[in-house]
Design brief:
The chain is of the alpha/beta class. The protein has 2 domains: about 5-125, HUPs (Rossmann fold, 3-Layer(aba) Sandwich); about 135-270, Rossmann fold (3-Layer(aba) Sandwich), CATH 3.40.50. About 40% of the residues lie in helices and about 25% in strands. It has 8 helices and 12 strands. The chain has helices at about 15-25, 40-60, 75-85, 110-115, 150-160, 175-195, 210-220, 245, and strands at about 5-10, 30-40, 65-75, 90-95, 120-125, 135-140, 165-170, 200-205, 225-230, 255-260, 265, 270. The chain has a 10-stranded mixed β-sheet with strand order 3-2-1-4-5-10-9-6-7-8, with helices on both faces. It has a two-stranded antiparallel ribbon with strand order 11-12. Helix 2 (about 40-60) links the parallel strand 2 and strand 3. Helix 3 packs parallel to helix 4 (about 110-115). It is elongated, with a radius of gyration of 18 Å. The chain starts with a strand and ends with a strand. Residues about 100-110, about 235-240, about 260-270 and about 270-275 have low confidence and may be disordered.
């Protein structure tokens, strides 16, 4: 089946890099790439439409195997992007960040606002994130969050679609109860990927306890994508509960951000129901 990925457009270098990442994911199915932009009012609509049409034509010429479409909306970007993805049956949003300094496309609290308003998962890439033909090595940090099984489901569908390898990494806990819980969850994850015939590596690592240690591990394993659950109310706060630090990591590794849902929702390239 052809897949649809929505990518917001701001005509910047980082925005074009996000398009390259989306194209790499879609390459295997020659799917649809939907370029999306929000304008403040109708006065901007005509001029932006002309610019968007020219931009869409350039992207189509660059990626002839994809069906490149464009969509303009008047309104609020934070809410509009999630609605646009759902209305156009997009399985995934790929967007860029300019980092911690300068004009921001999406950083910090703005990132949280975008994620919290979207039922569709979002991959965020930095300007220097190297595009690939899909993500072959995917890191799934194991935590004690109640929605962690949703994260495994997203990772499974993406790995099956891209023929990826999963890396499961968990911190070593001193508390016996937490240590046993982490081990049970890791065993569940291993069985989960065994049943799906997805290759993986899994370990509990005593050196994993901060964001920097996860990023160093990711660099050692040549990780292409980190799967991260947006859990602002988590009892076990990974990455110091700062999504900003995750999406602007020093290794420039793309991050898949998932907003937990208690009801049925569309996952990446597959369906999943329940809180799991």
């Amino acid at each position: 089946m052809k897949k649809t990925i929505l990518t917001p457009v701001d005509f910047s270098k980082v925005g074009q890099n996000a398009i390259a990442h989306a194209a790499g994911i879609l390459e295997t199915t020659k799917g649809d790439l939907l370029l999306f932009r929000v304008v403040k009012d109708s006065k901007e609509l005509f001029a932006t439409k002309k610019k968007m049409n020219r931009f869409r034509a350039r992207v189509q010429a660059q990626y002839p195997d994809l069906n490149v479409k464009s969509l303009l909306r008047i309104g609020e970007f934070f809410e509009g992007i999630g609605y646009a993805a759902l209305e156009n049956n997009a399985e995934l949003i790929v967007m860029g960040t300019h980092g911690l300094k300068g004009l921001q496309f999406i950083t910090g609290s703005r990132a949280l606002k975008v994620v919290s308003n979207s039922e569709v998962p979002i991959i965020i890439v930095q300007e220097d994130s190297k595009p690939t033909k899909g993500y072959k090595n995917i890191l799934v940090p194991m935590t004690l969050d109640k929605n962690s099984k949703q994260k495994l489901t997203y990772a499974k569908h993406l790995a099956l679609y891209l023929n990826s390898k999963i890396f499961l990494i968990a911190p070593s806990e001193k508390d016996e109860f937490l240590r046993n819980k982490i081990q049970r969850d890791l065993n569940f994850a291993k069985q989960f990927f065994d049943e799906a015939n997805i290759p993986y590596e899994a370990e509990i690592n005593e050196e994993i306890y901060t964001l920097d240690s996860y990023i160093e591990y990711a660099k050692e394993k040549d990780i292409d994508l980190i799967v991260f659950m947006n859990q602002p109310e988590s009892a076990y706060i990974l990455f110091d509960d700062r999504v900003q630090r995750v999406i602007t990591n020093k290794a420039h590794i793309p991050v898949l951000l998932i907003n937990p849902r208690k009801t049925s929702f569309v996952t990446i390239f597959g369906n999943y129901s329940g809180q799991g």
